[in-house]
Write a structure and sequence with these properties.
82% helix, mainly alpha, 0% strand, single chain
Protein backbone atom coordinates (compact mmCIF):
# COMPACT_ATOMS: atom_id res chain seq x y z
CA UNK A 1 0.00 0.00 0.00
CA UNK A 2 2.72 2.47 0.95
CA UNK A 3 4.63 1.72 -2.25
CA UNK A 4 1.53 2.71 -4.20
CA UNK A 5 1.20 5.85 -2.07
CA UNK A 6 4.82 6.76 -2.79
CA UNK A 7 4.31 6.31 -6.54
CA UNK A 8 1.31 8.66 -6.40
CA UNK A 9 3.30 11.26 -4.44
CA UNK A 10 6.17 11.02 -6.92
CA UNK A 11 3.84 11.47 -9.90
CA UNK A 12 2.13 14.39 -8.17
CA UNK A 13 5.38 16.31 -7.84
CA UNK A 14 6.51 15.37 -11.35
CA UNK A 15 3.43 17.06 -12.84
CA UNK A 16 2.58 19.37 -9.94
CA UNK A 17 1.57 22.54 -11.77
CA UNK A 18 -0.64 20.84 -14.35
CA UNK A 19 -2.30 18.73 -11.65
CA UNK A 20 -2.88 21.84 -9.56
CA UNK A 21 -4.64 23.44 -12.52
CA UNK A 22 -6.76 20.34 -13.09
CA UNK A 23 -7.65 20.20 -9.38
CA UNK A 24 -8.80 23.83 -9.37
CA UNK A 25 -10.92 23.35 -12.51
CA UNK A 26 -12.49 20.20 -10.98
CA UNK A 27 -13.48 22.16 -7.86
CA UNK A 28 -14.87 25.13 -9.78
CA UNK A 29 -17.11 22.88 -11.88
CA UNK A 30 -18.40 20.79 -8.95
CA UNK A 31 -18.65 23.50 -6.29
CA UNK A 32 -22.15 24.87 -7.10
CA UNK A 33 -24.06 21.59 -6.68
CA UNK A 34 -21.93 20.37 -3.78
CA UNK A 35 -22.40 23.77 -2.16
CA UNK A 36 -26.17 23.42 -2.40
CA UNK A 37 -25.96 19.93 -0.91
CA UNK A 38 -23.98 21.30 2.03
CA UNK A 39 -26.50 24.13 2.54
CA UNK A 40 -29.43 21.67 2.60
CA UNK A 41 -27.61 19.17 4.86
CA UNK A 42 -29.79 19.65 7.94
CA UNK A 43 -32.70 17.60 9.37
CA UNK A 44 -35.39 19.87 7.89
CA UNK A 45 -34.13 19.75 4.29
CA UNK A 46 -32.59 16.29 3.96
CA UNK A 47 -34.79 15.51 0.96
CA UNK A 48 -33.47 18.56 -0.90
CA UNK A 49 -29.93 17.57 0.08
CA UNK A 50 -30.52 14.12 -1.41
CA UNK A 51 -31.83 15.62 -4.65
CA UNK A 52 -28.90 18.01 -5.03
CA UNK A 53 -26.47 15.20 -4.20
CA UNK A 54 -27.92 13.09 -7.01
CA UNK A 55 -27.87 16.08 -9.36
CA UNK A 56 -24.19 16.61 -8.54
CA UNK A 57 -23.50 13.54 -10.71
CA UNK A 58 -24.15 15.76 -13.75
CA UNK A 59 -20.79 17.42 -13.10
CA UNK A 60 -19.06 14.93 -10.81
CA UNK A 61 -19.16 12.02 -13.26
CA UNK A 62 -17.58 13.73 -16.29
CA UNK A 63 -15.06 15.68 -14.22
CA UNK A 64 -13.96 12.48 -12.48
CA UNK A 65 -13.53 10.89 -15.91
CA UNK A 66 -11.33 13.84 -16.82
CA UNK A 67 -9.28 13.38 -13.65
CA UNK A 68 -8.71 9.70 -14.33
CA UNK A 69 -7.73 10.28 -17.96
CA UNK A 70 -5.09 12.69 -16.65
CA UNK A 71 -4.05 10.14 -13.99
CA UNK A 72 -3.74 7.38 -16.60
CA UNK A 73 -1.43 9.44 -18.77
CA UNK A 74 0.68 10.54 -15.81
CA UNK A 75 1.15 6.94 -14.64
CA UNK A 76 2.17 5.99 -18.18
CA UNK A 77 4.68 8.84 -18.37
CA UNK A 78 2.82 10.59 -21.19
CA UNK A 79 2.54 14.33 -21.74
CA UNK A 80 -0.48 16.03 -20.17
CA UNK A 81 -2.05 19.45 -19.97
CA UNK A 82 -5.26 20.96 -18.62
CA UNK A 83 -6.73 20.20 -22.05
CA UNK A 84 -6.27 16.49 -21.29
CA UNK A 85 -8.79 16.90 -18.48
CA UNK A 86 -11.42 18.36 -20.81
CA UNK A 87 -10.69 15.66 -23.38
CA UNK A 88 -11.48 12.97 -20.80
CA UNK A 89 -14.51 14.91 -19.58
CA UNK A 90 -16.06 15.03 -23.06
CA UNK A 91 -15.26 11.46 -24.04
CA UNK A 92 -16.83 9.67 -21.05
CA UNK A 93 -19.93 11.71 -20.24
CA UNK A 94 -22.59 9.01 -20.52
CA UNK A 95 -20.51 6.22 -18.97
CA UNK A 96 -19.42 8.42 -16.06
CA UNK A 97 -23.05 9.33 -15.33
CA UNK A 98 -23.93 5.64 -15.23
CA UNK A 99 -20.98 4.66 -13.03
CA UNK A 100 -21.09 7.49 -10.50
CA UNK A 101 -24.87 7.84 -10.62
CA UNK A 102 -25.20 4.20 -9.60
CA UNK A 103 -22.61 4.62 -6.87
CA UNK A 104 -24.24 7.79 -5.49
CA UNK A 105 -27.72 6.25 -5.53
CA UNK A 106 -26.36 3.25 -3.64
CA UNK A 107 -24.71 5.57 -1.12
CA UNK A 108 -28.01 7.33 -0.45
CA UNK A 109 -29.78 4.00 0.09
CA UNK A 110 -27.11 2.91 2.56
CA UNK A 111 -27.34 6.21 4.47
CA UNK A 112 -31.14 5.98 4.64
CA UNK A 113 -30.88 2.46 6.06
CA UNK A 114 -28.25 3.57 8.58
CA UNK A 115 -30.51 6.38 9.78
CA UNK A 116 -33.51 4.06 10.02
CA UNK A 117 -31.79 1.24 11.92
CA UNK A 118 -29.98 3.65 14.23
CA UNK A 119 -33.38 4.74 15.51
CA UNK A 120 -34.80 1.25 16.15
CA UNK A 121 -33.21 0.90 19.58
CA UNK A 122 -33.22 -2.92 19.76
CA UNK A 123 -30.91 -5.86 19.09
CA UNK A 124 -32.10 -6.35 15.51
CA UNK A 125 -31.61 -2.67 14.80
CA UNK A 126 -28.09 -2.78 16.25
CA UNK A 127 -27.21 -5.83 14.15
CA UNK A 128 -28.52 -4.27 10.94
CA UNK A 129 -26.78 -1.00 11.77
CA UNK A 130 -23.43 -2.78 12.01
CA UNK A 131 -24.21 -4.69 8.81
CA UNK A 132 -24.85 -1.50 6.86
CA UNK A 133 -21.73 0.09 8.31
CA UNK A 134 -19.76 -2.79 6.78
CA UNK A 135 -21.61 -2.29 3.51
CA UNK A 136 -20.76 1.42 3.64
CA UNK A 137 -17.08 0.56 4.08
CA UNK A 138 -17.22 -1.76 1.07
CA UNK A 139 -19.06 0.91 -0.93
CA UNK A 140 -16.30 3.46 -0.33
CA UNK A 141 -13.73 0.80 -1.18
CA UNK A 142 -15.43 0.32 -4.54
CA UNK A 143 -15.12 4.07 -5.11
CA UNK A 144 -11.32 3.73 -5.25
CA UNK A 145 -11.49 1.43 -8.27
CA UNK A 146 -14.54 2.35 -10.37
CA UNK A 147 -12.96 5.48 -11.84
CA UNK A 148 -9.74 3.84 -13.05
CA UNK A 149 -11.65 0.76 -14.30
CA UNK A 150 -13.98 3.03 -16.25
CA UNK A 151 -10.91 4.17 -18.21
CA UNK A 152 -8.82 0.96 -18.29
CA UNK A 153 -11.42 -1.65 -19.18
CA UNK A 154 -12.11 -2.52 -22.77
CA UNK A 155 -15.52 -3.86 -21.75
CA UNK A 156 -17.29 -0.64 -20.71
CA UNK A 157 -20.50 -2.25 -19.49
CA UNK A 158 -21.55 -0.93 -16.09
CA UNK A 159 -22.01 -4.38 -14.57
CA UNK A 160 -18.47 -5.41 -15.59
CA UNK A 161 -16.97 -2.28 -14.06
CA UNK A 162 -19.00 -2.81 -10.88
CA UNK A 163 -18.12 -6.52 -10.72
CA UNK A 164 -14.40 -5.95 -11.11
CA UNK A 165 -14.40 -3.11 -8.57
CA UNK A 166 -16.25 -5.33 -6.07
CA UNK A 167 -13.82 -8.21 -6.68
CA UNK A 168 -10.88 -5.90 -6.07
CA UNK A 169 -12.44 -4.57 -2.87
CA UNK A 170 -13.34 -7.97 -1.42
CA UNK A 171 -10.31 -9.78 -2.86
CA UNK A 172 -7.81 -7.42 -1.23
CA UNK A 173 -9.63 -6.17 1.89
CA UNK A 174 -6.57 -5.17 3.93
CA UNK A 175 -5.07 -3.23 1.03
CA UNK A 176 -8.40 -1.49 0.38
CA UNK A 177 -9.15 -0.70 4.03
CA UNK A 178 -5.60 0.56 4.59
CA UNK A 179 -5.89 2.79 1.53
CA UNK A 180 -9.26 4.11 2.71
CA UNK A 181 -7.94 4.90 6.19
CA UNK A 182 -4.93 6.82 4.90
CA UNK A 183 -7.08 8.61 2.32
CA UNK A 184 -9.48 9.57 5.09
CA UNK A 185 -6.67 10.97 7.25
CA UNK A 186 -5.28 12.95 4.32
CA UNK A 187 -8.78 14.26 3.57
CA UNK A 188 -9.17 15.51 7.15
CA UNK A 189 -5.77 17.22 7.06
CA UNK A 190 -6.53 18.71 3.63
CA UNK A 191 -9.81 20.25 4.75
CA UNK A 192 -8.21 21.59 7.92
CA UNK A 193 -5.39 23.22 5.96
CA UNK A 194 -7.82 24.29 3.24
CA UNK A 195 -5.34 25.22 0.53
CA UNK A 196 -4.49 21.55 -0.08
CA UNK A 197 -8.08 20.78 -1.11
CA UNK A 198 -8.03 23.67 -3.56
CA UNK A 199 -4.68 22.80 -5.11
CA UNK A 200 -3.93 19.07 -5.07
CA UNK A 201 -6.17 16.74 -3.05
CA UNK A 202 -8.53 15.47 -5.76
CA UNK A 203 -5.82 15.15 -8.40
CA UNK A 204 -3.69 13.27 -5.89
CA UNK A 205 -6.50 10.86 -5.00
CA UNK A 206 -7.07 10.16 -8.72
CA UNK A 207 -3.38 9.30 -9.14
CA UNK A 208 -3.45 7.15 -6.03
CA UNK A 209 -6.57 5.30 -7.13
CA UNK A 210 -5.08 4.64 -10.55
CA UNK A 211 -1.85 3.26 -9.10
CA UNK A 212 -3.85 1.11 -6.64
CA UNK A 213 -5.98 -0.30 -9.45
CA UNK A 214 -2.95 -0.99 -11.64
CA UNK A 215 -1.26 -2.81 -8.76
CA UNK A 216 -4.23 -5.11 -8.14
CA UNK A 217 -4.53 -5.84 -11.87
CA UNK A 218 -0.82 -6.69 -12.06
CA UNK A 219 -1.02 -8.87 -8.94
CA UNK A 220 -3.99 -10.76 -10.42
CA UNK A 221 -2.17 -11.25 -13.73
CA UNK A 222 0.94 -12.52 -11.92
CA UNK A 223 -1.12 -15.02 -9.91
CA UNK A 224 -2.87 -16.20 -13.06
CA UNK A 225 0.44 -16.64 -14.88
CA UNK A 226 1.88 -18.68 -11.99
CA UNK A 227 -1.20 -20.90 -11.83
CA UNK A 228 -1.09 -21.52 -15.58
CA UNK A 229 2.62 -22.29 -15.39
CA UNK A 230 2.05 -24.83 -12.61
CA UNK A 231 -0.84 -26.39 -14.51
CA UNK A 232 1.28 -26.65 -17.64
CA UNK A 233 4.13 -28.24 -15.70
CA UNK A 234 1.80 -30.82 -14.14
CA UNK A 235 0.18 -31.59 -17.48
CA UNK A 236 3.55 -31.92 -19.19
CA UNK A 237 4.78 -34.25 -16.45
CA UNK A 238 1.66 -36.37 -16.99
CA UNK A 239 2.32 -36.50 -20.74
CA UNK A 240 -0.61 -34.22 -21.62
CA UNK A 241 0.70 -30.81 -22.76
CA UNK A 242 -1.56 -28.00 -21.76
CA UNK A 243 -2.07 -24.86 -23.80
CA UNK A 244 -1.99 -21.64 -21.82
CA UNK A 245 -3.83 -19.65 -24.45
CA UNK A 246 -6.94 -18.68 -22.50
CA UNK A 247 -9.28 -15.82 -23.25
CA UNK A 248 -9.72 -13.14 -20.60
CA UNK A 249 -12.94 -11.72 -21.92
CA UNK A 250 -11.22 -8.49 -22.95
CA UNK A 251 -12.10 -6.88 -19.65
CA UNK A 252 -8.82 -5.14 -18.87
CA UNK A 253 -6.61 -3.59 -21.49
CA UNK A 254 -3.08 -5.04 -21.11
CA UNK A 255 -0.42 -2.49 -20.34
CA UNK A 256 2.28 -1.76 -22.90
Amino acid sequence: MFKVLWLAIKDLFDELFVLMGVNIVWILINLPLFGLTFIFANPDTLFLASITLLLSILTLGPTNAGLYIVAERVTEGRKIGVGTFFEGLRSHVRLSWQVYGTWMFGLLLILVNLQFYAGMGNVLGAFLLVLFLYILLIWFGILIYIGPLMIIQVDKRLRMIARNALLMTLGRPLFTIGTLIVMGLISVVSFIVGILVLLVTFSFFALWGFHATNKLIKDAEDRRAKMEEKTQQKATAAGNPYSTEKGRGGQIRPRD
